[in-house]
Amino acid sequence: MEPRIPREMRAVVYRGPNDLRLEQVPVPRIGRNEILVRVATCGVCPTDIKKIQTGSVPPPRILGHETAGTVVRVGSGVTGIRIADRVALHHHVPCGTCHFCVHGDFAQCATYLRTGVTAGFEPAGGGYAEYVKVLPFCLPGVVRIPSRNTFEEGALLEPVNTVLKAVRRLGLHHGDSVVVVGQGPIGLLFNRILALHGQQVFGTDLVGRRRLLGRTWGAAATWDGGDPGLAERIRRRTRGRGADAVVLTVPQEGAFHSAFDLVRRGGRILLFAHTLRGHRTPTDLSTLCVDEKTVLGSYSSDFSLQREVARRVFSRRLDVRPLVTHRFPLERTSEAIALAASASPESLKILVEAQP
Questions:
Q1: pTM for the full model?
Q2: What distance in Å separates the CA atoms of residue 216 and residue 319, rounded to the nearest whole number?
Q3: Which CATH superfamily is domain 8-156+320-353 in?
Q4: For a tag on the chain, would you pick the N or C end, based on fewer CB atoms within 10 A?
Q5: What whole-number distance in Å separates Cα of residue 141 and Cα of residue 161?
Q6: Does the pLDDT at position 49 exceed 70?
Q7: Which long-range contacts (CB under 8 A, 24 or more apart) does 146-151 make?
Q8: Residue 188 has pLDDT above 80, yes or no
């Protein structure tokens, strides 16, 4: 039986830079090939923080895309999804047939670049609301959450996917050494996934408590990112070569330039957090040509990894539950955003809970 659904709902509407307002908006109406989901929880993602703080997208929008909840309405043309299913949502799904998809570059697919989960206005994820609808092209991104698992684990599938995709792009060998710059929630996921893959992980962070956490999440050693002797420490741990790869989970220009000193000749530097257009910095091109050091990026998730990510998270081989440190009700979303942006030593993954 279809549950009773109100005409209006609470939603946090982005009205401009650093301007989030709790408003009453219509509950989305679905078409025959769409579903409606009652949001349980939504993770706070750095990309949403950047949009809110910089005003890089035009208002109004309802943001939030690391979303999990319960299906409450199913269009007549939808198969394989039922009312009361507990689900995690992927707001980007590629077409699978274009030139980019054929080459495995799903995040560059025109269909993927559209957002397919919305709570109203221009589709923008919609997780900071009580209900969201999933558009037809994103239905393949709906993942059932097993009864033993939590909505929070479902909400973390998407960030885990982005990290696993980035690790795959590095093309590492078993036993390779990797420096993970930044030991926040994403950095800790890199630590754990790399360690599970058999890599030797070293972490850096400016915050002492996060350096301690880095070791519990898989790093063999962690150091202060501002240590002037950091490159020498890495060389001593890698037989004088330098790290095989450096992963930058923070968009700091100084960290980017320092990465060239940490990585070996022929090694790789991966940019994970540099998502704002227009950021330029000088680079000694001989390090790319003569030293054959490679700079590459990794953005968003890889749809082909979706099932593998679900197996890892829901089996708890990759247990993401300890990553969650703070939960805020919907009406305190602005506080959740502010805390996530502050890199507090006490905060890691922060969630917004849409239901009281």
A1: 0.95
A2: 13
A3: Medium-chain alcohol dehydrogenases, catalytic domain (3.90.180.10)
A4: N
A5: 12
A6: yes
A7: 146/314, 147/86, 148/314, 149/313, 149/314, 150/321, 151/40, 151/41, 151/68, 151/69, 151/86
A8: yes
